[in-house]
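Example record for the data management plan.
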Amino acid sequence: MGKNHQADLFQTTIPAPIQQLNDQQRLDWLRLSRSRGIGPITFRDLINYFGSAGQAIEQLNGTLFNKRRFQIASKQEALDELAKVERYGAHLVALNEPGYPRWLQSVDGAPPLLYVKGNLALSQQPALAIVGSRNASAAGLKFTSQLAQEVGSAGLIISSGLARGIDTSAHQASLQTGTIAVLGGGLDHIYPAQNEALYHQIGQNGLLISERPMGFHPQAKDFPRRNRLISGLSLGTLVVEAAIRSGSLITARFAGEQGRHVFAVPGHPLDPRASGTNKLIQDGAQLICKPQDIIEALKGQINNNELTTTPCQPTDNPDAEKNDKYSGFYETKQEKKDLRLKLLDLLGPTPIERDSLTRMLKCSARDLQILLLELDLEEHLEHHGHQKISLKKFL
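Corresponding structural encoding:
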């Protein structure tokens, strides 16, 4: 059986090649990513396994793969979605394309496709996420505005979630220096409604981003997905005011898992809006009293504008050889079975890096990738930050 010689981007430490998708590839990416049961990580693994989204669709549509039957989104559905994007003056950018947020590319489970509108150049510049209470204090709003202006002038783009309170203050103060708003719903769903004017200002002078399709109206459960994008496209996350049970703390947690800086502004112990930020500081977040504290912490990355994390992206290679079987690249079925048993012995509830498993098993990255893909499709794997995985339960 011929092997797919596409570069292994599942575990490699070499940044993936940046390429522009053609119209057919973009359509294939949209169809595959919109298919039921295919999330960002499975999407990436399927492309790396089959060689391209088009080949994955051809092999998977309506057929059994590893005991699962996939129903791929129809071509017409994808075409209709692309037409909506174009009519709205936005466009789709893929994970391996120029214009995809540079630091988000390195996040495990980054969305394969993003809906974007505005100044796409901002996505390539270092950013600071500023999040906090929707019912912010006057002091919190004033400090947020001052900080966003000063760190923006120092070279940082400000990212946030367009919510009331701290988010709004951060966006407004950084309209001139550069701001990115990550939406919980589709690009055409403005929430909250009171920020409609700010939304349009950002669309003209900043950048609007969403991973959700046009027309999608978010519910409370959808906002953590947005929060992971806010932290993922930023070098660090600053929490200004947040209660103990706050979505802002979810953003801070994602930042820590993604290997980014976590900053927090202290507050009065009797103010419930400071309980979350004070707890973050107790847990190790860097205490921030003035804009210069953040500028000093991120100075090297601002000046050098270097990507300090390892991208893990799929690539779409239409010329890659097709796999005519689903058994991987093992010499025999017994060899694959033996390697699977060894892998299951090594895996447990404690997260472990994928490259560590490759070394321990003394196998190729490709062979490990196929086994992990199968376990993932069987819903046995738990994914963590920094390319770490664990078993959901012992098998």
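Summary line stored alongside the record: Confidence is low (pLDDT under 50) at residues 1-16, 306-312, 318-330.
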